[in-house]
Amino acid sequence: MADQTIVEALLLGILEGLTEFVPVSSTAHLLLAGHFLGFESTGKTFEVLIQLGAIMAILTVYFMRLVRMAAALPSDRKTRRFVAGVLLAFLPAAVIGAGAHGFIKQVLFETPVLICTVLIVGGVILLWIDRLPLKPRYTDIMDYPLGLCFKIGLFQCLAMIPGTSRSGSTIAGALLMGTDKRSAAEFSFFLAMPTMAGAFTLDLYKNRDVLTFDDAVIIGAGFVTAFAAGAFVVKYLLDYVSKHGFALFAWWRIAVGTVGLIGLLLLG
User: Fold this and answer.
1) Which segments cross the bilayer (predicted)?
2) Do 204 and 51 form a contact (C-beta atoms < 8 A)?
């Protein structure tokens, strides 16, 4: 295994961590970067499996809060409702992801023009939502009704299309249904835990017979940098979006999608 591959894996891991929890589509960034770098992973598993680093980043930053929730679960009704809401929101993606896994990996992951186009369209939609004069009814994730959680989970299913963004679709859906920006982003963090863990487990199981030791080393390298970059983003993102909204991420999506289309046109 070439040293250059390890370097690429480290760089892609940083890219995963920086983009997983912001509404720009980490999968799109990884697939496009891998396309132009000539980076190929067995069964396109690298792009999914290094999400374990991002999962660990959330668990690290939210560790004490998760411990308090676990302790309160038997006796506190609000905590039980919140946990049930997260699991309910996770359910649609679990069903669709398991059923459409092959199509997503073999068709959608292999269509860079679609990915770039979705990035641009999603950026325009995010700009529109960010500028709407929305009046939030829910500002605390612990108060989200179960029906609202399930509807956010339906929005998350849009992220099956690379370029849509898991966090982007959940945040946009939450904002349109009456949440404020900070709580929408925070609920997206919590929903990421079962969603990304489920995607990791399914992809690892589906590719268990084709992965090699070299793949494990590359994935491990990406995991480390994804963890470090993800922890940084989770720690500071909520304060940023509370003050500045999502316009920066929308324009970034449009720029990356446009540059990607130009690159595909010129380089193939």
Assistant:
1) 48-70, 82-103, 109-129, 187-205, 217-238, 250-267
2) no
C-alpha pair distances (Å), 17 with each of 26, 120, 140, 188: 8, 21, 25, 15
Contact (CB, 8 A) for 169 and 155: yes
b/e code 198-233 from CB counts within 10 Å (16+ = b) = ebbeebeebbeeebeeebeebbbbbbbbbbebbbeb
Provide the CA 31 distance to its chain's centre, in angstroms: 14
- Residue 196's nearest CA partner among 42, 18, 56 is 56
d(CA 268, CA 256): 16
Angle subtended at Cα 137 by Cα 131 and Cα 92, rounded to the nearest 5 degrees? 85
pTM: 0.85
Comparison of pLDDT for 108 and 72, the residue scoring more: 72
Domain count, the chain: 1
Domain span holding position 69? 3-267
- Chain mean pLDDT for the chain: 89
Closest to 25 in 3D by CA, of 9, 45, 47, 4:
47
263 vs 256: CA distance, rounded Å:
10
pLDDT at 258 exceeding the cut of 80: yes
Over pLDDT 90: what percentage of the chain?
51
